[in-house]
Amino acid sequence: MPMYKVKPVSPADIKIDLPTRMYKSPNIHAQGMNCGQHALQLLCSGMRGWSFSDLHFQFNTLQLTTTLKEMDHTRKDDDDDMNGEVDPALKALEERQDEVLRRLYEIKATVDGLAKTVTTPDADLDASTLSRGPAESVFRGTADLDSLLGKDLGALRDIVINASPACPPLCLLVLHALLCQRYQVLSSVHVHSSVSAVPPPLLSCLGPRHIDSYARQRFQLGFTLIWKDVSELQMKFNTQSMCPIEGEANVARFLFRLLGGEPQDPVAATQMDCWIDTAVFQLSEGGSKERAAVLRSLNAALGRSEWLLGQEFSLADIVCACCVLRAGQTTSAPVNVQRWLKSCQNLGHFDCVYPLLQ
């Protein structure tokens, strides 16, 4: 005897026309290319310059679009089998599917537009595989003074540097000598009232006064050094529209740009900045252990090449050599460092530095 008795909810003689298949899908074995290969071909046609995440997203989008299209064809075939009778729930599902397809096509169009503008996917760039290009010579480059110092309106573009006589900026004196070889430079040295006395070598560190110093319009640049009681070296070339540049390393980078000698290769430019920061913060301001570590690094680098960046003299050699000379490490330096210092001296650019070290 049954435990419960339930009345039938439908007549016993009802006939239901069931389809003979659940889904209709194309025969991929009979075609020359399956859906996955077709999607991959579409993806590869526009993948140049894309990052891995863009490729992954685009492949998933195309794969999902292909699947939805096949489902759309299957749904239409099933509608034909049901003699035009559409369930409301199925109709709502179809509308939702059409909306999803529309949004996917919009996203695909947006990604295609972005792919045309993105040509260097930095997120996927491996800096360890970059190769260094040939370094540019310090004396071969050209610099546009109008772009660096502003347009020449008839007044002399004067670079004014405030420095403490207790710590002379040796590398800036070397750069001044290089600027004098490239441009017509009007040089002058002054003493601020905050300083009581300055040694004679510091007063003549920029060389003798030019005989045409009264005619300022004949010069391209002005280089004014003021010995002043300041804690940090400062530079200005436009007192009205700029704040001062502080730090000997930062001013040296600026002056080096006037020579047009910046490395064009990004790897070489990064290495130059690393050597400059190492020299300033460890050789000049560090302890004995830090100085010894830097000298070992210099010795190893100079054992592989003539200069710090390869075969060309650069700002890294100027700053590091001046810091080694200021630290008094010339006699105790390793063999490669001493050979390198001798090469710097033979260039003639450091002649203005050695009188200040005595």
Automatic annotation (TrEMBL):
Q: Where is the signal peptide?
A: none
Describe the function of this protein: Required for assembly and stability of the aminoacyl-tRNA synthase complex. Mediates ubiquitination and degradation of FUBP1, a transcriptional activator of MYC, leading to MYC down-regulation which is required for aveolar type II cell differentiation. Blocks MDM2-mediated ubiquitination and degradation of p53/TP53. Functions as a proapoptotic factor.
* Assembly with partners or alone: Part of the multisynthetase complex (MSC), a multisubunit complex that groups tRNA ligases for Arg (RARS1), Asp (DARS1), Gln (QARS1), Ile (IARS1), Leu (LARS1), Lys (KARS1), Met (MARS1) the bifunctional ligase for Glu and Pro (EPRS1) and the auxiliary subunits AIMP1/p43, AIMP2/p38 and EEF1E1/p18. Interacts (via N-terminus) with KARS1. Interacts with EPRS1. Forms a linear complex that contains MARS1, EEF1E1, EPRS1 and AIMP2 that is at the core of the multisubunit complex. Binds FUBP1 (via C-terminus).
Q: Which GO terms describe its biological process?
A: apoptotic process; cell differentiation; translation
Domain AIMP2 lysyl-tRNA synthetase binding positions: 1-40
- Give the record's GO CC terms: aminoacyl-tRNA synthetase multienzyme complex; cytosol; nucleus
Q: Where in the cell is it found?
A: Cytoplasm, Cytosol; Nucleus
- Kindly give the InterPro entries that the UniProt entry links to this protein: AIMP2, AIMP2_LysRS-bd, AIMP2_thioredoxin, Glutathione-S-Trfase_C_sf, GST_C
Task: From the Swiss-Prot or TrEMBL record, give the protein name.
Answer: Aminoacyl tRNA synthase complex-interacting multifunctional protein 2
Glutathione S-transferase C-terminal domain residues are: 289-344
Keyword list, A-Z: Apoptosis, Cytoplasm, Developmental protein, Differentiation, Nucleus, Phosphoprotein, Protein biosynthesis, Ubl conjugation
Chief localisation class:
cytoplasm
Q: Which residues form the AIMP2 thioredoxin-like domain?
A: 155-246
Q: Specify one Pfam family.
A: Thioredoxin_16
